[in-house]
Design brief:
The protein has 15 helices and 13 strands. The chain has 334 residues and is of the alpha/beta class. It is globular.
Length: 334
């Protein structure tokens, strides 16, 4: 049994044909990114899954792990109109959204004109997002959820597709601010970037210290990306996967009958986490060449989808536990 949610019906033959075309395009994207980013296959997969699902992603890692390079490469490969904002402590919301300026014509009549900010892009790179104040970070809240902004009471729609890929340094570093919980919840996934393995680092040394670096090439356009995103939303979700998502997300909330969660979790993920898991599971299935997600997809996506939507209790932190530990235990139970 499968569940279809508000989607236009497609025949099985049409779905298979559309999936095959999408797979060919996704393969081109993977190859294009792989020419520039060495190793980090899991990071590339999760970032592409977030984009294919139509969402935003938060890339977390120490400096020097090619977070910014990955975002720049994706913008070129996918053919998206990209903008970059370097977040700093003195950055203001108007530096992101834009502002109104007063102009005077030849007759002396004064009027306001809106000058769009860098947020009017299809791919926005929020570089080192946690180096700006929470007030500035919150300027992205409306755009990431509603895909438009409001300035001086006027609504301005953002381009489609619209994605935010933010990079973040670990909170233990100097000059960083924690992201507000509402801001974190708008990211489809938090993708942790670790140090590369020895083979990948050897390739980095050999291929990036010569006279020429590998250059990214465009292989897709925004309209084709939107078509693939719509196809993913049409993919059927087996009832067993729906039940696994509900069990996992609800078991991560205190007060839902899970004794370990009640003991270790201060607050847990909301319904947006269930939505994110459903979309990402569909996208991961297509990324792997399948027409429907499985419970293995839910287990694989549990950490990046849930870890930034939960907080541990003081007792759990005192015991040295991490959110990853809790999510890993819950994922095993499904």
């Amino acid at each position: 049994m499968s569940v279809m949610i508000k989607e236009t019906a497609m025949t099985e033959a049409e779905m298979i044909a559309a999936a095959e075309r999408a797979l060919a395009d996704i393969a081109k994207v993977r190859t294009g990114v792989g020419r520039v980013i060495f190793g980090q296959e899991s990071v590339i997969e999760r970032t592409l899954v977030a984009l294919l699902a139509g969402g935003h992603a938060l890339l977390v890692g120490v400096p020097g792990l090619a977070k910014t390079k990955l975002v720049e490469t994706l913008g070129i490969v996918l053919g998206l109109d990209s903008r970059r904002i370097q977040f700093t402590p003195d950055l203001m919301p108007s530096d992101i959204l834009g502002s109104e300026v007063m102009e005077q014509d030849e007759q002396g009549k004064r009027s306001f004109r809106f000058i769009p900010g860098p947020i009017f892009a299809q791919l926005l790179m929020a570089d080192e997002i946690n180096r700006a104040s929470p007030r500035t970070q919150s300027a992205l809240l409306q755009s990431m959820q509603e895909y438009h902004i409001t300035v001086a009471g006027e609504r301005y729609d953002l381009p489609a597709p619209f994605h935010v890929l933010a990079t973040q340094n670990p909170l233990e570093q100097e000059g960083t601010y924690p992201l507000p919980e509402a801001q974190l919840d708008r990211f489809l996934m938090q993708i942790d970037i670790l140090y590369p393995d020895v083979d990948a680092e050897r390739r980095i040394l050999l291929e990036t210290t010569g006279l020429e670096d590998a250059k990214a090439q465009n292989v897709l356009d925004p309209e084709r990306l939107k078509d693939i995103q719509q196809l993913i939303r049409r993919m059927p979700v087996p009832e067993s996967v729906v039940e696994a998502i509900l069990k996992l997300v609800r078991s991560a909330r205190p007060g839902q009958g899970n004794a370990e969660t009640d003991k270790h979790v201060s607050w847990g993920p909301g319904p947006r986490a269930s939505q994110a898991l459903t979309l990402c599971a569909r996208a991961r299935a297509l990324y792997d060449g399948r027409l429907a997600p499985s419970i293995d997809d839910i287990r694989a996506l549990a950490e990046p989808v849930l870890q930034h939507r939960m907080a541990l209790s003081f007792a759990a932190r005192a015991e040295g536990m991490t959110v990853r530990d809790v999510v890993a235990r819950l994922a095993k139970e499904i």
